[in-house]
């Protein structure tokens, strides 16, 4: 399987995570819109299929990026690494508007770490190999695991203890 085929498979697999985060935002009072995802038939066509965010919020328009990672975590204390990957540097740098937030969703889709785009000045970047693809590395932004806000998405906690980060609620 070539890298483009792998990318398309990962793109398809990401949709469940995007839907889960959109549901959480809606339950917390936000008005998420999930734009249609299109697929390039060849890797060289990627620019025509680059999206404007995984989730959009209106009034004013704001974008949310969702990263469904294959790690277990519930909070900063059990984050499994000394640093947290935010997103690809090139994608963030070319984004207009910049993401309001990057939401890291854990493996079981029960918890999120919400990294606010406004914290960008505190991030750093490193060139990192992406093990999902053959011979591929990119510049990636990182932050400390204690910088994001962590939330449980479990149904029983949504209405009792959840308050979406500023900017994700309808009234913000």
Record the SSE blueprint.
Elements: H1 3-27, E1 32-33, E2 55-57, E3 62-68, E4 84-88, H2 89-94, E5 101-105, E6 111-116, E7 124-129, E8 137-143, E9 149-152, H3 155-158
Parallel strand pairs: 3-5
Antiparallel strand pairs: 1-2, 2-3, 4-8, 5-6, 6-9, 7-8
Which descriptors apply to this entry?
Trna Endonuclease, Chain: A, domain 1, six-stranded mixed sheet, 172 residues
How would you portray this structure in words?
With 172 residues, the protein is α+β, with helices and mostly antiparallel strands. It has a single domain (3-158), classed as 3-Layer(aba) Sandwich (Trna Endonuclease, Chain: A, domain 1). The protein has three helices and nine strands; from the N terminus they run αββββαβββββα. It has helices at residues 3-27, 89-94, 155-158; strands spanning 32-33, 55-57, 62-68, 84-88, 101-105, 111-116, 124-129, 137-143, 149-152. Strand 2 and strand 3 (62-68) form a beta hairpin. It is globular and about 40 Å long.
Question: How large a portion of the residues is in β-strands, by DSSP E?
Answer: 25-35%
Give the termini separation: 44 Å
| CATH C-level | Alpha Beta
Average residue-wise pLDDT: 77
Shape summary: globular
Helix residue percentage:
10-25%
Uncertain regions spanning at least 5 consecutive residues: 156-163
Q: What is the tally of helical segments?
A: 3
CATH fold label: Trna Endonuclease, Chain: A, domain 1
The overall strand count is 9
With strands numbered from the N-terminus, the spatial order across the biggest sheet is 1-2-3-5-6-9
Structural class: alpha+beta
Written as H for each helix and E for each strand, in order along the chain, the element string is HEEEEHEEEEEH
CATH architecture: 3-Layer(aba) Sandwich
Count of distinct structural domains: 1
């Amino acid at each position: 399987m070539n890298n483009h085929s792998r990318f398309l498979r990962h793109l398809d697999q990401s949709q469940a995570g995007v839907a889960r985060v959109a549901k959480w935002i809606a339950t917390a009072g936000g008005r998420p819109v999930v734009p249609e995802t299109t697929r390039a038939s060849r890797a060289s066509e990627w620019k025509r299929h680059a999206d404007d965010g995984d989730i959009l919020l209106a009034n004013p328009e704001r974008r949310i990026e969702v990263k469904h990672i294959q790690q277990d975590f519930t909070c900063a204390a059990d984050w499994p690494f000394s640093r947290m990957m935010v997103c690809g540097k090139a994608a963030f740098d070319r984004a207009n508007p910049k993401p309001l937030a990057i939401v890291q969703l854990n493996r079981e889709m029960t918890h999120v770490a919400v990294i606010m785009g406004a914290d960008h000045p505190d991030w750093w970047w490193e060139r990192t190999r992406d093990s999902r693809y053959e011979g591929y590395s990119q510049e990636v932004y990182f932050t400390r695991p204690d910088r994001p806000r962590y939330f449980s998405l479990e149904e029983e906690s949504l209405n009792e203890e959840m308050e979406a980060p500023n900017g994700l609620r309808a009234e913000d």
